[in-house]
Design brief:
The complex is a heterodimer of chains A (266) and B (215). Chain A is mainly alpha-helical and 266 residues long. Chain A contains twelve helices and no strands. In chain A, α4 runs antiparallel to α5 and α5 packs across α7. Helices cover 55% and strands 0% of the residues of chain B. Chain B is built from ten helices and no strands. The longest helix of chain B has 21 residues. The radius of gyration of chain B is 21 Å and the shape is globular. The two termini of chain B are 32 Å apart. The chains are: A mainly alpha (266), B mainly alpha (215). Chains A and B meet through α4, α5, α7, α9 and α10 of A and α1, α2, α3, α4 and α6 of B.
Chain lengths: 266, 215
């Protein structure tokens, strides 16, 4: 029987695993070590016998309790390489060199940090943090590596690139720039074989924008915020960026100019 | 003060996970819903939502078809080694755990007891970055090229005896027994960089590099 999660939300409701994960954990806990090893070797997610990452997290925590009790590390030694391997494949794609000095070292730090979570699990400082990873592993891990990437990029921006933010212009541009419309359309359209390369180039160009311009573009064109509003109660991109609509429009205009200089007219 | 800080960090972490769990790609509606529950973290949540939105547009990792399930990459191997180091450090600190080192064993690694926040704080106090501090932790720098002043500064910032820090730098990077590797990717202990090379390849500015070299 899977050990219940203990983490609760702010309103007191408990975090819960998906039913399919609960069922898989119950099934796997009853396997012999040899049978479990066989399941760990299955690498295709479509295979019904594939072990979900949420299940692997539960097995790791179970294995760590075994280790604390009896110094038996067999379960941990079997599971951690598989889980770490999946995470490495993710960060190789998601943690690239853009805005980061040494992406390989950052990826290593992310993997090392994840393994440390299992060492500290159950301690006073980290009682049930891994519960998130048993709910939706990919989302929890995404939060982990995005946080690491952002901190490193921010440090880099401040101490290495020393990017000077341009002064805000006094004019207030109106009307959506066709460049931004074209970029948004390209990013929202599912990739095909022909335009996959161009899509990647566009995304790289967006990610290379200075942080304020990137934020303005993403909030307005990807997440759907209005630039500003006459209704003071309406939350807009300007609200989220603690500035006014004119500033957002200027940042969008600068973003369009940068993207045009990198990508040409789309 | 530490308890308050821990609570604040824990609360922010919870808010971030709530946002990440709420949707594959949070839009304005989802973000505002989470911010309503955690208004004190509106800026952090906004930044995370932006990161998630752009991350979701990236290519997904290749499927696991064709992957050799018995192979362990060098990066994973290092992560496993790190895990064992941390586990050992925790076990050695417990009652009944190993009090001293077996002959031939590496000295304790004074960086391993640092959590993420302390690790980053150390990097800041050294006027360096985490990339460089990782190299110190993993003994990737030739100890003969580290200046005495730098080693003293590291010991002071770690709150560790200078002798321990020196012993750590001087220890060899050893492979952990019991791991298995693809023959073509068998990792070596790794050639060490000089102090100057390590600084230059860590993404530090010229000012920071010169400051550290001058210690």
């Amino acid at each position: 029987m899977a050990r219940p999660l203990t983490r609760t939300r702010k309103d007191g409701t408990p975090y819960t695993r998906e039913a399919a994960v609960e069922a898989q954990i119950d099934e796997v806990l009853a396997l012999t070590p040899e049978a479990l090893q066989g399941r760990l070797l299955i690498t295709q997610p479509q295979d019904p016998a594939y072990l979900r990452s949420e299940t692997l997290v539960h097995l790791m925590r179970h294995g760590m309790r075994e280790h604390r009790r009896s110094r038996d590390q067999r379960l941990v030694n079997a599971v951690l390489p598989v889980l770490s391997g999946r995470c490495e494949r993710t960060v190789r794609v998601k943690v690239s060199g853009l805005g980061i000095g040494d992406p390989a070292s950052l990826r290593q730090e992310i993997l090392n940090g994840l393994s440390e979570l299992f060492v500290r699990d159950g301690s006073a400082q980290q009682r049930d943090r891994l519960d998130y990873y048993e709910c939706k592993f990919n989302h929890a891990f995404r939060t982990w590596y995005l946080d690491a990437r952002r901190r490193e990029a921010l440090w880099h921006e401040r101490h290495v690139d020393l990017i000077d933010e341009p002064p805000e212009e006094s004019e207030d541009p109106r009307g959506a720039d066709p460049m931004l419309i074209a970029v948004t359309l390209a990013l929202r359209t599912p990739p095909t074989q022909e335009d996959d390369v161009q899509r990647e180039e566009i995304l790289k160009a967006v990610e290379a924008l200075p942080s304020k311009e990137r934020a303005a573009f993403t909030l307005v064109h990807i997440m759907g915020y209005k630039i500003d509003s006459n209704d003071p109660g309406e939350v807009t991109a300007a609200t989220r960026c603690h500035c006014d609509g004119r500033t957002i429009r200027n940042r969008l205009q600068r973003a369009a100019a940068r993207l045009r200089s990198v990508l040409g007219d789309l | 003060m530490t308890d308050d800080r821990d609570r604040a960090v824990s609360a922010l972490r919870e808010a971030c996970h709530e946002l990440s769990l709420a949707a594959d790609i949070p839009d304005a509606r989802v973000l505002e819903e989470v911010i309503r529950r955690y208004p004190e973290f509106s800026d952090e949540l906004t930044q995370l939502a932006i990161d998630i939105a752009l991350d979701a547009l990236q290519a997904e990792p290749a499927t696991e078809e064709g992957i050799d399930p018995t192979a362990v990459s060098p990066a994973v191997s290092r992560a496993l080694s790190h895990f064992q180091d941390r586990l050992h450090a925790l076990t050695a600190g417990e009652p009944g755990g190993r009090a001293g080192l077996a002959p031939g064993a590496d000295p304790p690694n004074p960086f391993l007891s640092l959590d993420r926040a302390a690790f980053r704080s150390l990097a800041t106090r050294l006027n360096a970055n985490t990339v460089f501090v990782c190299k110190l932790r993993d003994r990737q720098i030739d100890p003969a090229t580290l200046t005495p002043g730098f080693k003293r500064r590291v010991a002071a910032e770690l709150g560790a005896p200078l002798a321990l820090v020196q012993a750590h730098f001087a220890a060899r990077a050893s492979l952990r027994p019991g791991q298995f590797y693809k023959a073509s990717d068998k990792p070596a202990a790794g050639a060490q960089q000089s102090f100057a090379e390590a600084l230059a390849s860590s993404g530090l500015g010229e000012r920071e590099q010169q400051w550290l070299l001058a210690l």
